[in-house]
Write the C-alpha coordinates for this entry.
Amino acid sequence: MQQTPLPTDSFRLPARAARKERYIYIAVPWSPTGGGMFKVAEYLIRAQAGKTPGHAAELRPLDTYGPGSAWTSLIALAKAMWMIVRGRFEGGLAGVHVNVAERLSLFRKSMIVITCSLLRVPVVIHLHAQMKNFYRSLPGPAQAVVRWIFSLASTVIVIGSAPRRFVLEELCVDPRKVEIVINGVPGPAQAPVRGIAADGIRRVLFVGRLTELKGVLELLEALAQAKIDRNAIEVTLAGNNQVERFRQKAKDLGIDSFVKFPGWCNQEQIDELMSKSDVLVLPSHDEVLPLVVLEALAYGVAVVCTPVGELPMVLSDGENARFVPVGDADKLAAVLEDVLGDDELLLRLGRNGRTLYEQQFSLERFFTSVARVHQRHFGIAGHLPAAETVLADEALQ
Protein backbone atom coordinates (compact mmCIF):
# COMPACT_ATOMS: atom_id res chain seq x y z
CA MET A 1 0.00 0.00 0.00
CA GLN A 2 3.04 2.30 0.20
CA GLN A 3 3.13 5.11 -2.33
CA THR A 4 5.88 7.63 -2.89
CA PRO A 5 4.49 11.08 -2.09
CA LEU A 6 4.39 13.64 -4.83
CA PRO A 7 7.13 16.29 -4.60
CA THR A 8 5.87 19.78 -4.07
CA ASP A 9 7.11 20.99 -7.43
CA SER A 10 5.02 18.35 -9.22
CA PHE A 11 1.97 20.58 -8.71
CA ARG A 12 1.61 22.89 -11.69
CA LEU A 13 -1.14 25.48 -11.88
CA PRO A 14 -2.66 26.50 -15.19
CA ALA A 15 -1.06 29.61 -16.66
CA ARG A 16 -4.15 31.71 -15.92
CA ALA A 17 -3.72 31.04 -12.18
CA ALA A 18 -1.07 33.72 -12.00
CA ARG A 19 -3.89 36.24 -12.20
CA LYS A 20 -6.00 34.55 -9.55
CA GLU A 21 -6.02 35.08 -5.82
CA ARG A 22 -4.31 32.14 -4.14
CA TYR A 23 -5.76 30.38 -1.11
CA ILE A 24 -5.07 27.48 1.23
CA TYR A 25 -7.85 25.32 2.63
CA ILE A 26 -7.75 24.41 6.33
CA ALA A 27 -9.78 21.18 6.50
CA VAL A 28 -11.55 20.82 9.84
CA PRO A 29 -15.04 20.37 11.36
CA TRP A 30 -15.99 24.05 11.20
CA SER A 31 -17.97 24.35 14.42
CA PRO A 32 -17.13 24.37 18.15
CA THR A 33 -17.97 20.64 18.26
CA GLY A 34 -14.68 20.17 16.42
CA GLY A 35 -12.90 20.82 19.72
CA GLY A 36 -9.22 21.68 19.65
CA MET A 37 -8.93 21.10 15.90
CA PHE A 38 -11.58 23.73 15.25
CA LYS A 39 -10.07 26.23 17.67
CA VAL A 40 -6.60 25.94 16.16
CA ALA A 41 -7.98 26.42 12.65
CA GLU A 42 -10.17 29.32 13.74
CA TYR A 43 -7.21 31.04 15.40
CA LEU A 44 -5.18 30.82 12.19
CA ILE A 45 -7.96 31.98 9.90
CA ARG A 46 -9.21 34.84 12.06
CA ALA A 47 -5.67 36.08 12.67
CA GLN A 48 -5.33 37.19 9.07
CA ALA A 49 -5.32 40.95 8.90
CA GLY A 50 -7.62 42.55 6.32
CA LYS A 51 -7.07 42.01 2.63
CA THR A 52 -4.48 39.39 1.72
CA PRO A 53 -1.51 40.94 -0.13
CA GLY A 54 -0.48 39.60 -3.52
CA HIS A 55 2.53 37.69 -2.21
CA ALA A 56 0.44 35.70 0.29
CA ALA A 57 -2.43 33.21 0.29
CA GLU A 58 -5.74 33.52 2.09
CA LEU A 59 -6.42 30.79 4.65
CA ARG A 60 -9.98 29.49 4.19
CA PRO A 61 -11.99 26.95 6.20
CA LEU A 62 -12.95 23.68 4.49
CA ASP A 63 -15.76 22.16 6.57
CA THR A 64 -15.49 18.37 6.64
CA TYR A 65 -18.35 17.68 9.06
CA GLY A 66 -21.24 20.10 8.62
CA PRO A 67 -23.99 20.85 11.15
CA GLY A 68 -25.56 17.39 11.36
CA SER A 69 -24.71 13.93 12.67
CA ALA A 70 -21.77 11.68 11.84
CA TRP A 71 -23.77 10.14 8.99
CA THR A 72 -25.01 13.38 7.48
CA SER A 73 -21.42 14.60 7.66
CA LEU A 74 -20.85 12.52 4.53
CA ILE A 75 -22.69 15.24 2.61
CA ALA A 76 -20.34 17.87 3.98
CA LEU A 77 -17.39 15.62 3.12
CA ALA A 78 -18.57 15.24 -0.48
CA LYS A 79 -18.95 19.02 -0.74
CA ALA A 80 -15.45 19.52 0.63
CA MET A 81 -14.01 17.12 -1.92
CA TRP A 82 -15.85 18.95 -4.71
CA MET A 83 -14.44 22.28 -3.52
CA ILE A 84 -10.94 20.84 -3.79
CA VAL A 85 -11.66 19.63 -7.33
CA ARG A 86 -13.02 23.05 -8.30
CA GLY A 87 -10.14 24.88 -6.69
CA ARG A 88 -7.62 22.69 -8.47
CA PHE A 89 -9.02 23.29 -11.92
CA GLU A 90 -9.89 26.94 -11.43
CA GLY A 91 -6.30 27.44 -10.41
CA GLY A 92 -6.47 29.31 -7.11
CA LEU A 93 -5.95 26.44 -4.66
CA ALA A 94 -2.34 26.31 -3.44
CA GLY A 95 -2.67 23.43 -0.99
CA VAL A 96 -4.75 21.80 1.75
CA HIS A 97 -3.90 21.67 5.46
CA VAL A 98 -5.78 18.69 6.90
CA ASN A 99 -6.42 18.52 10.66
CA VAL A 100 -6.71 14.88 11.76
CA ALA A 101 -7.75 13.17 14.98
CA GLU A 102 -8.92 9.54 15.15
CA ARG A 103 -11.95 7.32 14.48
CA LEU A 104 -14.39 8.94 12.01
CA SER A 105 -12.23 12.05 11.82
CA LEU A 106 -9.46 9.89 10.38
CA PHE A 107 -11.85 8.36 7.81
CA ARG A 108 -13.17 11.73 6.64
CA LYS A 109 -9.75 13.35 6.44
CA SER A 110 -8.36 10.31 4.62
CA MET A 111 -10.82 10.97 1.82
CA ILE A 112 -9.60 14.56 1.64
CA VAL A 113 -5.96 13.42 1.49
CA ILE A 114 -6.71 10.89 -1.26
CA THR A 115 -8.60 13.51 -3.27
CA CYS A 116 -5.63 15.87 -3.04
CA SER A 117 -3.21 13.12 -4.04
CA LEU A 118 -5.25 12.18 -7.12
CA LEU A 119 -5.45 15.83 -8.19
CA ARG A 120 -1.76 16.48 -7.44
CA VAL A 121 -2.62 19.11 -4.86
CA PRO A 122 0.01 19.25 -2.08
CA VAL A 123 -1.40 18.34 1.30
CA VAL A 124 -0.19 18.75 4.88
CA ILE A 125 -1.51 16.40 7.58
CA HIS A 126 -1.73 17.98 11.06
CA LEU A 127 -2.15 15.29 13.74
CA HIS A 128 -4.05 16.52 16.82
CA ALA A 129 -4.54 13.26 18.73
CA GLN A 130 -2.23 10.71 20.30
CA MET A 131 -3.98 8.13 18.04
CA LYS A 132 -1.59 5.40 19.22
CA ASN A 133 -4.15 3.28 21.07
CA PHE A 134 -6.76 3.66 18.34
CA TYR A 135 -4.25 2.72 15.63
CA ARG A 136 -3.12 -0.37 17.54
CA SER A 137 -6.74 -1.51 17.91
CA LEU A 138 -7.17 -1.64 14.13
CA PRO A 139 -6.71 -4.88 12.17
CA GLY A 140 -3.53 -5.22 10.11
CA PRO A 141 -5.07 -4.25 6.74
CA ALA A 142 -6.63 -1.11 8.22
CA GLN A 143 -3.29 -0.15 9.77
CA ALA A 144 -1.69 -0.52 6.34
CA VAL A 145 -4.27 1.88 4.88
CA VAL A 146 -3.52 4.44 7.61
CA ARG A 147 0.20 4.22 6.88
CA TRP A 148 -0.48 4.70 3.18
CA ILE A 149 -2.66 7.76 3.84
CA PHE A 150 0.09 9.40 5.87
CA SER A 151 2.64 8.58 3.18
CA LEU A 152 0.67 10.71 0.71
CA ALA A 153 1.26 13.95 2.63
CA SER A 154 3.93 16.44 1.68
CA THR A 155 4.64 16.66 5.40
CA VAL A 156 3.08 15.61 8.71
CA ILE A 157 2.80 18.15 11.52
CA VAL A 158 2.80 16.81 15.08
CA ILE A 159 2.42 18.69 18.35
CA GLY A 160 5.33 17.17 20.26
CA SER A 161 7.97 14.49 20.68
CA ALA A 162 5.65 11.61 21.64
CA PRO A 163 3.38 11.99 18.57
CA ARG A 164 6.53 12.33 16.46
CA ARG A 165 7.82 8.96 17.69
CA PHE A 166 4.46 7.36 16.91
CA VAL A 167 4.40 8.78 13.38
CA LEU A 168 7.98 7.68 12.74
CA GLU A 169 7.98 4.27 14.39
CA GLU A 170 4.46 2.99 13.80
CA LEU A 171 3.20 4.91 10.77
CA CYS A 172 6.65 4.64 9.15
CA VAL A 173 6.64 8.21 7.83
CA ASP A 174 9.96 9.44 6.45
CA PRO A 175 11.71 11.47 9.21
CA ARG A 176 12.35 14.26 6.69
CA LYS A 177 8.58 14.69 6.37
CA VAL A 178 7.73 15.06 10.06
CA GLU A 179 7.71 18.52 11.66
CA ILE A 180 6.93 19.56 15.22
CA VAL A 181 4.79 22.69 15.51
CA ILE A 182 3.74 23.68 19.02
CA ASN A 183 0.25 25.14 19.32
CA GLY A 184 -0.31 28.78 20.11
CA VAL A 185 -3.35 30.73 21.23
CA PRO A 186 -4.46 34.37 21.24
CA GLY A 187 -4.27 36.17 24.53
CA PRO A 188 -4.68 39.61 26.07
CA ALA A 189 -1.94 42.17 25.39
CA GLN A 190 -1.24 42.01 29.11
CA ALA A 191 -2.37 39.52 31.70
CA PRO A 192 -5.02 40.86 34.10
CA VAL A 193 -3.68 42.15 37.41
CA ARG A 194 -3.88 39.31 39.92
CA GLY A 195 -4.63 39.45 43.61
CA ILE A 196 -7.43 38.70 46.01
CA ALA A 197 -10.73 39.82 44.50
CA ALA A 198 -12.71 42.58 46.17
CA ASP A 199 -15.21 40.01 47.42
CA GLY A 200 -12.41 37.85 48.86
CA ILE A 201 -13.37 34.88 46.70
CA ARG A 202 -10.78 32.61 45.07
CA ARG A 203 -12.00 31.32 41.71
CA VAL A 204 -11.08 27.92 40.30
CA LEU A 205 -11.86 26.97 36.70
CA PHE A 206 -12.13 23.72 34.76
CA VAL A 207 -12.79 23.83 30.99
CA GLY A 208 -13.43 20.73 28.91
CA ARG A 209 -15.76 17.83 28.29
CA LEU A 210 -17.26 16.64 31.55
CA THR A 211 -16.09 13.03 31.52
CA GLU A 212 -14.06 10.75 33.78
CA LEU A 213 -11.25 10.80 31.21
CA LYS A 214 -10.86 14.52 31.90
CA GLY A 215 -10.48 13.81 35.63
CA VAL A 216 -13.76 15.44 36.64
CA LEU A 217 -14.54 12.75 39.19
CA GLU A 218 -11.17 13.19 40.94
CA LEU A 219 -11.62 16.96 40.91
CA LEU A 220 -14.98 16.77 42.67
CA GLU A 221 -13.65 14.27 45.21
CA ALA A 222 -10.60 16.48 45.83
CA LEU A 223 -12.80 19.52 46.41
CA ALA A 224 -14.88 17.54 48.88
CA GLN A 225 -11.89 16.60 51.03
CA ALA A 226 -9.66 19.67 50.63
CA LYS A 227 -9.25 21.83 53.73
CA ILE A 228 -10.41 25.08 52.16
CA ASP A 229 -12.80 27.81 53.22
CA ARG A 230 -15.96 26.91 51.31
CA ASN A 231 -17.30 30.41 51.81
CA ALA A 232 -14.28 31.91 50.05
CA ILE A 233 -14.06 29.75 46.94
CA GLU A 234 -16.02 29.44 43.70
CA VAL A 235 -15.40 26.54 41.32
CA THR A 236 -16.71 26.58 37.75
CA LEU A 237 -16.73 23.47 35.55
CA ALA A 238 -17.43 24.77 32.04
CA GLY A 239 -18.20 22.11 29.48
CA ASN A 240 -20.80 19.76 28.06
CA ASN A 241 -21.35 15.99 27.98
CA GLN A 242 -22.19 14.45 31.41
CA VAL A 243 -23.29 17.67 33.09
CA GLU A 244 -26.22 16.29 35.07
CA ARG A 245 -24.26 13.28 36.28
CA PHE A 246 -21.51 15.41 37.79
CA ARG A 247 -23.91 18.04 39.08
CA GLN A 248 -25.60 15.27 41.06
CA LYS A 249 -22.20 13.97 42.19
CA ALA A 250 -21.31 17.43 43.52
CA LYS A 251 -24.60 17.48 45.41
CA ASP A 252 -23.95 14.01 46.85
CA LEU A 253 -20.51 15.16 48.02
CA GLY A 254 -21.98 18.26 49.64
CA ILE A 255 -20.03 20.75 47.53
CA ASP A 256 -22.80 22.04 45.28
CA SER A 257 -22.93 25.33 47.20
CA PHE A 258 -19.66 26.50 45.64
CA VAL A 259 -19.37 24.34 42.50
CA LYS A 260 -21.11 25.60 39.35
CA PHE A 261 -21.90 23.85 36.06
CA PRO A 262 -22.79 26.48 33.43
CA GLY A 263 -22.61 23.94 30.59
CA TRP A 264 -20.90 24.59 27.30
CA CYS A 265 -19.38 28.08 26.98
CA ASN A 266 -18.31 29.89 23.83
CA GLN A 267 -14.87 31.44 23.49
CA GLU A 268 -16.02 34.87 24.63
CA GLN A 269 -17.44 33.33 27.81
CA ILE A 270 -14.26 31.30 28.38
CA ASP A 271 -12.17 34.45 28.02
CA GLU A 272 -14.33 36.17 30.60
CA LEU A 273 -13.96 33.24 33.01
CA MET A 274 -10.19 33.17 32.46
CA SER A 275 -9.87 36.86 33.20
CA LYS A 276 -11.51 36.38 36.60
CA SER A 277 -10.03 33.01 37.62
CA ASP A 278 -7.09 32.38 39.95
CA VAL A 279 -6.48 28.71 39.13
CA LEU A 280 -7.14 26.45 36.15
CA VAL A 281 -7.43 22.77 37.05
CA LEU A 282 -7.14 20.08 34.37
CA PRO A 283 -6.60 16.61 35.92
CA SER A 284 -6.94 14.77 32.58
CA HIS A 285 -5.94 11.14 32.12
CA ASP A 286 -4.83 11.73 28.52
CA GLU A 287 -3.97 14.83 26.47
CA VAL A 288 -1.56 15.97 23.78
CA LEU A 289 -1.12 19.69 24.48
CA PRO A 290 -4.48 21.10 25.66
CA LEU A 291 -5.25 24.58 24.38
CA VAL A 292 -7.03 25.52 27.60
CA VAL A 293 -3.73 25.27 29.49
CA LEU A 294 -2.08 27.62 26.99
CA GLU A 295 -5.02 30.01 27.36
CA ALA A 296 -4.58 29.97 31.13
CA LEU A 297 -0.89 30.82 30.72
CA ALA A 298 -1.86 33.72 28.45
CA TYR A 299 -4.14 35.13 31.15
CA GLY A 300 -1.63 34.62 33.95
CA VAL A 301 -3.83 31.99 35.62
CA ALA A 302 -2.03 29.46 37.83
CA VAL A 303 -2.22 25.96 36.32
CA VAL A 304 -2.76 22.70 38.19
CA CYS A 305 -2.70 19.70 35.85
CA THR A 306 -1.57 16.12 35.33
CA PRO A 307 1.80 15.54 33.58
CA VAL A 308 0.31 13.85 30.51
CA GLY A 309 1.11 14.20 26.81
CA GLU A 310 3.45 17.08 26.10
CA LEU A 311 2.66 18.99 29.29
CA PRO A 312 5.73 17.80 31.23
CA MET A 313 7.86 18.76 28.20
CA VAL A 314 6.71 22.38 28.17
CA LEU A 315 5.79 23.07 31.81
CA SER A 316 7.94 22.87 34.96
CA ASP A 317 6.40 21.69 38.22
CA GLY A 318 6.59 24.42 40.84
CA GLU A 319 7.76 27.05 38.38
CA ASN A 320 4.87 27.68 35.98
CA ALA A 321 2.46 24.87 36.99
CA ARG A 322 1.78 22.30 39.67
CA PHE A 323 1.57 18.67 38.62
CA VAL A 324 -0.63 16.02 40.23
CA PRO A 325 -0.62 12.27 39.46
CA VAL A 326 -3.34 10.95 37.19
CA GLY A 327 -6.36 9.68 39.13
CA ASP A 328 -5.07 10.80 42.55
CA ALA A 329 -7.82 12.81 44.26
CA ASP A 330 -5.89 12.94 47.55
CA LYS A 331 -2.84 14.55 45.95
CA LEU A 332 -5.04 16.92 43.96
CA ALA A 333 -6.73 18.03 47.17
CA ALA A 334 -3.36 18.68 48.80
CA VAL A 335 -2.07 20.69 45.84
CA LEU A 336 -5.23 22.79 45.70
CA GLU A 337 -4.84 23.51 49.41
CA ASP A 338 -1.23 24.64 48.80
CA VAL A 339 -1.96 26.83 45.80
CA LEU A 340 -5.12 28.45 47.13
CA GLY A 341 -3.56 29.00 50.53
CA ASP A 342 -0.31 30.61 49.34
CA ASP A 343 -0.79 34.01 47.70
CA GLU A 344 2.89 34.26 46.75
CA LEU A 345 2.89 30.84 45.06
CA LEU A 346 -0.35 31.62 43.24
CA LEU A 347 1.00 34.88 41.82
CA ARG A 348 4.39 33.40 40.95
CA LEU A 349 2.85 30.56 38.96
CA GLY A 350 0.68 33.05 37.07
CA ARG A 351 3.56 35.43 36.28
CA ASN A 352 5.88 32.65 35.16
CA GLY A 353 3.12 31.12 33.09
CA ARG A 354 2.52 34.42 31.29
CA THR A 355 6.24 34.74 30.56
CA LEU A 356 6.28 31.22 29.11
CA TYR A 357 3.27 32.05 26.95
CA GLU A 358 5.00 35.10 25.49
CA GLN A 359 8.13 33.07 24.76
CA GLN A 360 6.58 29.95 23.25
CA PHE A 361 2.80 29.93 22.83
CA SER A 362 1.71 33.26 21.35
CA LEU A 363 -0.55 33.17 18.31
CA GLU A 364 2.02 35.16 16.32
CA ARG A 365 4.68 32.51 16.86
CA PHE A 366 2.24 29.70 16.04
CA PHE A 367 1.04 31.44 12.86
CA THR A 368 4.65 31.97 11.80
CA SER A 369 5.53 28.30 12.33
CA VAL A 370 2.56 27.15 10.24
CA ALA A 371 3.36 29.74 7.56
CA ARG A 372 6.87 28.34 7.25
CA VAL A 373 5.45 24.87 6.63
CA HIS A 374 3.02 26.20 4.02
CA GLN A 375 5.74 28.21 2.27
CA ARG A 376 7.96 25.13 1.96
CA HIS A 377 5.29 22.78 0.69
CA PHE A 378 2.70 25.01 -1.00
CA GLY A 379 5.06 27.70 -2.27
CA ILE A 380 2.97 30.37 -0.56
CA ALA A 381 1.62 31.09 2.93
CA GLY A 382 -0.88 33.17 4.86
CA HIS A 383 -0.13 36.72 5.98
CA LEU A 384 0.00 38.12 9.50
CA PRO A 385 1.87 41.42 10.00
CA ALA A 386 2.68 40.60 13.62
CA ALA A 387 4.22 37.30 12.50
CA GLU A 388 6.66 39.20 10.26
CA THR A 389 8.08 40.79 13.40
CA VAL A 390 8.62 37.35 14.92
CA LEU A 391 10.37 36.17 11.75
CA ALA A 392 12.62 39.23 11.70
CA ASP A 393 13.54 38.86 15.37
CA GLU A 394 14.43 35.19 14.95
CA ALA A 395 16.52 35.93 11.84
CA LEU A 396 18.74 38.20 13.96
CA GLN A 397 19.33 35.58 16.64
About this structure: Residues 1-19, 389-397 have pLDDT under 50 and may be disordered. The first helix runs from residue 35 to 46. Residues 48 and 384 are 5 Å apart (CA to CA). The chain is about 45% helix and 15% strand.
